[in-house]
Amino acid sequence: MLGPAAQVGLHDHERFLKRYPPFRTLDTPTLDRLVRALQVVYRPRGSAFDVTGGLFVIRRGAVDLNGEHYAQGDTLGGGVRVGTAQATTDAWLYVLPPERAGEWLNHPALHAFLSAQLSERLSAPDLGADTGADLSRVPVSEIMQPPVLVPPDASVQEAATRMRDRRVSSLMVDLQDTHGPGQYGIITDKDLRNRVLAGGLPPTTPVREVMSAPARTAPEDITAVSALNLMFRHNVRHLPLVRGAELVGMLGTADLLRLQTRGLGFVVPDLLDAPDAGTLVRLARSLPARASHLYRSGQKAEAIARQVSYAYDALYRRALELTQAELRGEWGAAPGPFAWVLLGSLARRESGLNPDQDHHLLIQSPEHRPYFQALARGVEALLAHAGLPPCDGGVLASNHLWTREEYAAQLRAWFRVPDPQALLNVTIYFDPRVVAGDLDVSEGLRVRLSARHEPAFMDHLTRLAVSQRPPLGFLGRLHTGQDHALDLKVQGLARIIDLARLQALHAGEAGASTFVRLGPGSGAGFLHPDTRADLLGAYAYLLDLRLAHQTAQLERGETPGNRVPLADLGGPQEVHLREVFKLIGRVQATLAAQTGGPL
């Protein structure tokens, strides 16, 4: 024992503790009082000591406890991380022995940190984002406008006059007398342009002939981000809000835009309405900066990725429309239905600021292949100009153009011969989402889910999921390559995605989203609910950390990437990353024991 911390440099100890959770949340007087109560204790390599009941913070060195490695900045004790620890190197610790630790272990910040599940600890903010309007917390009732109604027999001229006088761009049409309680239609200024003026209809045309009915509504208590996601998903600019069957408000994209002036409020409809390829490319290339602004305004990466995915969906759909229009002169209209299928992070709605093209194309007949080959090449070229580079592995529609029958046969072949390449293909093609087209792809879904009934295939897929271990080196330290950086995608996110995919197959979950696959409603599967919750918290934390890094790269004029230099990480981030990687390693070790080890 070296003595009280206050006697060996008070300021230095305060500065150290302030770098790590949970002490960084303490105010200065409280932290000062804690430091004065601490002892600095030296433990030589190989020595054992009991951490039960006390509070132990590793200042230097490393410690093993219950098979886990702990290093600089980690906190032990507190009734959770308890037992006999062993110093694996010479170690210096800040210590509050049990007889003096009670007051501090009951402190709200310390108690919450030490007793929380990993998923809860990782949710604490430590990424340095600016605060601002968080759309996940703002209720739409705070920003909605009063609805303006019109009867269904009113003329379109009367409707246009009411829009002008009330300075609104939409009217609700009351249909309750004819269709029942809570039934409404909607007419917008866009309807007046496209259906009335462009359609050559007279101004006496009744509103009921050009309205959209029934109007898509949402409850008044949803959050702004939920409303935004709903509007993006269904490509609507106006969202009526209801309380039961009562119409209580109207929300427009302009209302949301006031909360995020440089965000994604208008870009989705603008992408869908882009008049030409040049406009589409310009709008698409603004998406990373718009997403970065949302992060700076305080939103979480999960919500931002979902919103960005709707924008990229719009980019794909408009790129397909523009390319089809360009092909019409030589090829005519599309010869049959199709399904353009996204893969990877955009399919899961979980991309960062640097997504690429991952997709394949399903068609009805082999005879249609020449047309759709030309379509695929044109779309891919336009997407590349728009800032979406082709997948390095060539997972592109122009290379993977199948009929539904060919696709199902290919999946079954991968199941029967689960060699490394087949398993790699499965990890790519088992996260699909149709972004455009109306071809029925339900047979492909049934075939994918049937994989859980192939024991050899499932065993090999499990071995693959545990074959790439997290980057923890000697004594649990973060291990990096020669560039002293971690790849958050390959070494962290991808490992959790693999585990979530296994969970989904075991549970029969069809959704591609990692948040759905690990969520409480994903079914029994093979992962314990607490493990799923911790993995989900770890995944969200890695998404946030990557987005913080990529936002900083954009601000420096750099291309966003997934490799984060260790030198750029703060103390809390290092601690949390070690916890994340230890969690992944524990789950992999459990699975490896069940299957006999990795491939």
Automatic annotation (TrEMBL):
Pfam families: CBS, DUF294, DUF294_C. Residues 143-204, 211-266 form the CBS domain. InterPro entries: CBS_dom, CBS_dom_sf, CBS_domain-containing, cNMP-bd_dom, cNMP-bd_dom_sf, DUF294_put_nucleoTrafse_sb-bd, GlnD_Uridyltrans_N, RmlC-like_jellyroll. PROSITE patterns: CBS. GO terms for molecular function: [protein-PII] uridylyltransferase activity. Transmembrane segments: none annotated. Keywords: CBS domain, Repeat. This is CBS domain-containing protein.
